[in-house]
Design goal:
Strand 1 (38-46) and strand 2 form a beta hairpin. The protein is built from one helix and ten strands. The protein has one helix at 2-35; strands at 38-46, 49-50, 62-66, 69-73, 83-85, 88-93, 97-102, 109-115, 121-127, 132-136. Helix content is 25%, strand content 40%. The strands form two sheets. Strands 1, 2, 5, 6, 8 and 9 form a six-stranded antiparallel sheet that branches. It folds into two domains: 1-35; 36-136, no CATH class. The radius of gyration is 21 Å and the shape is elongated. The chain is of the alpha+beta class and 137 residues long.
Length: 137
């Protein structure tokens, strides 16, 4: 009999650990969502369509400050900053942010749209070769 209760105790312990980890993960996700007040969608393409964000940053970089932390992203690490979808490269921004980007492509345009927490477009800009987008709050 002691073996059966020991096995059951270990099973209950594993379940409790799993539940605790799930709870911590949900709190972490909620905290990340609470800090994410804005979203930037960068595009690199032509005729209003997005092709690939890397094409506009082959010789330039993207500088982003989020919650007081500044990063400079180049073509080899820009994907660390967000996720690329069919409509553009999405970057989650905090309530306090700045973003500076320079287009290095000859023919493609670099565009940006900033959305607030309610998904309302609050800013839009587009630049050609060596044009600079500089936005913040």
């Amino acid at each position: 009999m002691p073996q059966a209760s020991g096995v059951r105790g270990k099973t209950v312990s594993k379940i409790m650990k799993t539940l605790a980890l799930a709870f911590i993960a949900s709190l972490s996700f909620a905290a990340t969502q609470a800090m994410a007040e804005y979203k930037a969608v960068l595009t690199c393409g032509m005729n209003g369509s997005h092709i690939n964000i890397l094409a506009c940053f082959t010789d330039t970089d993207l500088k982003v400050t989020n919650n007081g932390q500044t990063g400079i992203y180049k073509v080899y690490n820009i994907k660390q900053l967000g996720s690329e979808y069919q409509d553009g490269f999405h970057i989650t921004l905090s309530n306090s942010f700045s973003l500076k980007a320079q287009n290095s492509h000859d023919t493609l345009t670099l565009g940006i749209k900033i959305y607030d927490a309610n998904n309302n477009e609050t800013y839009q800009d587009m630049v050609g070769k060596y044009g600079v987008i500089n936005v913040g709050n």
